[in-house]
Structure formats: structure tokens, C-alpha cells
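FAQ: What does the model actually see?

It sees only this:
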Amino acid sequence: MNPIVLWRGSPDPTAPIVVLLHGRGSNERDIAGLADVLPIGPAYAAVRGPIELGGDSYAWFENRGIGRPTAESLRTQLDWFWAWLDEFASSRTVIVIGFSGGAAFAGGLALDRPTRLAGVAVLYGTMPFDAGLSTDPDRLDGLAVFHAQATEDSVIPRDLLDRTWAYLGGDAGAIAVTHRHGGGHEISQTILPSLRRWITAQTRS
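And it is asked to produce this:
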């Protein structure tokens, strides 16, 4: 089953795609607005998570605690996502941007198929450690990564934030742009200029 997607930006079928992934308990409408402050040129796809939590709330995977996906659920949903993406965008440049629970899923996509993506942004979340995917040194060798954290984030466990910071900025082998600033668990205006520059760099033909 294909996901529900809200599209913004370019209608050009050859344009780069920036996939936007919402947080756990949210939906595609909440993240779609981010496209309004990002560069003109790409197509923006705000995708709804496949797991219903009730009401208008969705998630990307079942978990065993905040930021800790179960390996079976993560594998199932990664395969679901790739099947959708590969169906229509096999030759297009793709960047994935995830917030909170969507950040963990974006990180999972990068770990699963690091050469498929032009870049991945992990915003105010964790990589999916200990969930069946390799986090060996240089797993993300040469991949463009944008990573943002807030020092007063009270949602994502601190041990996962610290482990993600160390991995993406070090052993992963990624070409990483990292930001750590004051504030809580939300996308801060302070990172947007850098995020816009990063997207432009990854989508420049």
C-alpha cells in the first residue's frame, strides 16, 4: 500500500525530491509546512507514517521505548518505504529529512541503503541504534548528513542524543553538518538558514 503524501514545491517529474517525515504521534500535515521555508526547486513530499496510533496520529515503527525501534517493525516499514520510493523515483535525487521519530526513521533509511540517498537530515532525534541495522564505522561513508540537537530536549533520552551526536560526527564517516543549540524538542528557526544551504548543495545539478 502506497503512503499518503502531501506534495509541495516543484511539479517537475525530474526534480529532486525532499521527503519530510513527521514525528511520532503527528501526521504529514504537521511537517508539510516546513517546505514553505525551504529552497525553491525541489519537490517536497510530506509522508504519513504507516502505523496508526489513533485519532490523526501516526508513527514510523513500533518501539520498545522512546527512540528505540523494534528491529522487526523497523525492517517492515523500511521495506514499505523503499517499495514506494523505488516505484516512481528510481532515478531521482532524494533527500530525507526527519523530525523526532521521523529522524530515527530517516536515520534507518540512511543506514539501510546509504548509497541511495543524496543526503539525510536527523532533526531533534536519534539514530535507530540496536534495531537490526549496521552502525559500523564508516557505514555512512561520504553521505551528506545534517544533524541538529537542542540541549534542553526532554523528549529524546539523553544517552541516545549523545550517542547520535558522537556517531554522526565521527565513526559514521558521513560528511556532517552539525548544530547543537539551546532550546527544547522542536525545529528551531536558528538552524533554518544552514538547512536551506545544505539542501541547495545536495540538490544542485
